[in-house]
């Protein structure tokens, strides 16, 4: 039996979708904080159990009988509390007799104990100390943060602005990371491994060229001088510093096929129906 924690989130649902193509539904359990919120998974034959990272007793029950546990990192923002939640899950897994854990970590967590990787670094150390067989899936940033329906606006205006300074970006799509996770959970050759996943390196200049070719309309890249607002500005700062240029072939190796190219991603985005316009505000 495979238990997927935090299964109600976007990534967890994608992992379950992939698992359903590889094993029977009654071999899969979704551990979630709100079982009523995943009635659709139950309707597909997936087992559903209460699995709250802040409730160790519930976690022990949720993980009981699991040969493999997909430990998806908590959405908690505070690194200390997040690491404590992960430790509680690992302790519960050991008590419940889980056979092996697959954990969604982050690139650089093996060496960086601060910032974005702080909780992941602590969790990797906890896993090593637990003695449980495990596999580490160190994710890059998701491609969806950069490559999304918002690119339609660049096609319309003919201009794509960024503050990335022409540096490379190694993101990967959630769907491919979920496929890789499902393979790790259902294949026997990954225990004891730590994978550093990256997608194909791309730049905003290349993105502008891809938008032009696929849309048939000229799009030019302009380097933004001011910082973009909010999280986008922070992400672009990381890119400009060269923090997203690391490359490995781990994702392709686990998938058994190349990761999506920039051309493929842009084609899919531009050929999808445009989202409906917002209706009038309710009175």
Notes on the structure:
- 40% of the residues lie in helices and 14% in strands.
- It is α/β, with parallel strands linked by helices and 283 residues long.
- The chain folds into two domains: 2-139, Rossmann fold, CATH 3.40.50; 145-169 and 199-246 and 257-271, UDP-galactose 4-epimerase, domain 1.
- The strands form two sheets. It has a seven-stranded parallel sheet with strand order 3-2-1-4-5-6-8, sandwiched between helices. It has a two-stranded parallel ribbon with strand order 7-9.
- The N and C termini lie far apart (50 Å).
- The model is unreliable at 278-283 (pLDDT under 50).
Topology:
Blueprint: E1 2-5, H1 10-19, E2 28-32, H2 39-43, E3 47-50, H3 56-63, E4 68-71, H4 79-96, E5 100-106, H5 118-130, E6 134-139, H6 151-157, E7 159-162, H7 174-186, E8 194-196, H8 204-215, E9 220-223, H9 230-240, H10 250-255, H11 262-271
Parallel strand pairs: 1-2, 1-4, 2-3, 4-5, 5-6, 6-8, 7-9
Helix pairs in contact: 1-7, 3-4, 4-5, 8-11
Task: Summarize the main sheet.
Answer: 7 strands, parallel
Query: What would the average pLDDT be, to the nearest integer?
Result: 94
Top-tier CATH class of the largest domain: Alpha Beta
Percent in strands:
5-15%
Query: What is the gyration radius calculated from CA atoms?
Result: 20 Å
Helix content class: 25-40%
Q: Give the overall shape, derived from the CA principal axes.
A: globular
Oligomer, anyone?
A: single chain
CATH architecture of the largest domain: 3-Layer(aba) Sandwich
Q: N-to-C SSE series?
A: EHEHEHEHEHEHEHEHEHHH
**pLDDT < 50 stretches:** 278-283
Separation of the first and last Cα atoms: 50 Å
Structural class from helices and strands? alpha/beta
Number of strand segments? 9
CATH topology of the largest domain: Rossmann fold
Side-by-side strand order of the widest sheet: 3-2-1-4-5-6-8
